[in-house]
Amino acid sequence: MNTSDDDGSPGRAGYRRSAGSPRGEARRRELLARVTDDLVANGLVDFSLRRAARAAGTTHKVLLYHFDGADDLLGQAVAELRGRRVGNALASVAEQPSGRPLADGVRAVWRTLLEEETDLRRALDQGIGLSMYDPDRYGALSRDASRQYLPVLLSVCPADWSEQRRHQVAEMVLATLRGFLVELSTSRDDSGVAAGFEALARALEREEAAGP
Predict the structure, then answer these.
(1) CA-based nearest residue to 212, from 164, 144, 150, 175
(2) Angle (nearest 5°) at CA 111 between 107 and 112
(3) What Cα–Cα distance (Å) separates residue 91 from each residue in 23, 25, 57, 116?
(4) Which residue in 167, 79, 151, 160 sits closest to 109, CA to CA?
(5) What is the mean pLDDT of residues 159-168?
(6) Is residue 105 a contact partner of residue 158, using CB atoms and an 8 Å limit?
(7) Collapsed DSSP state (helix, strand, coil) of residue 20
(8) For helices 49-56 and 22-42, what crossing angle results, to 10°?
(9) Distances from the Cα of 184 to the Cαs of 162, 181, 196, in angstroms?
């Protein structure tokens, strides 16, 4: 996957980023939204500033005024995609009755992941692939994902648990669901993943039954 600037130097900021101006921030958000939509439509493969500029209807020099190079733009666009996933998950959790079992909350989150549009899941899967392929350069794509996803999973944990226990269980669920998504993308083993999720749900039921 090539995500370098067009001259081959990753993350080179040739222009000063816009900052502090409401108009400049509005323009940055507009450009970011167009680039994010392009990632959903075309994936992360061969991402570059020139491709992003075409999608945004501008020039790569304008993008360099608003973003610190291709890597910065890619990271912000992927964060926008994760934001869509997180928003869907939060909406699903909000529909659950208060005091519902932990396993039911995780089921609600899992359903949103299974029902999300294929192109969105593909783009986010490719972000994971990049972070594995070149962790020094793209590792933040995965680290930032944890920061975005964990609040959703923490919100479904029992309120009377200690903060440490809630974080431990949320981290376990996050890692497991990530593994299931990778398995679905690579092996297409729907029945195997479904069986694995049911095992996770039973484990969460036992964890909650153990009390605060």
Answers:
(1) 164
(2) 125
(3) 31, 27, 33, 13
(4) 151
(5) 95
(6) no
(7) coil
(8) 110
(9) 33, 5, 12
What is 151-168 written as a DSSP string? Answer: HHHHHTS-TTS-HHHHHH
- Helix pair 163-187, 190-209: axis angle to 10 deg: 170
User: 49 and 17 in contact (C-beta within 8 Å)?
Assistant: no
> What pLDDT score does 95 carry?
87
Residue 186 has pLDDT above 50, yes or no: yes
Give the span between the Cα atoms of 176 and 166, in whole angstroms. Answer: 15
Domains of the chain with CATH codes? 74-209 (1.10.357)
Across residues 130-145, what is the average pLDDT?
88
Q: How far apart are CA 2 and CA 103, in angstroms?
A: 40
- Which pLDDT band, with edges at 50, 70 and 90, does 3 fall under? low
What does the pLDDT read at residue 19?
57
Amino acid at 200: L
Residue 175 scores a pLDDT above 90: yes
User: What is residue 129's predicted lDDT score, i.e. its pLDDT?
Assistant: 87
Rounded CA Rg of the chain = 19
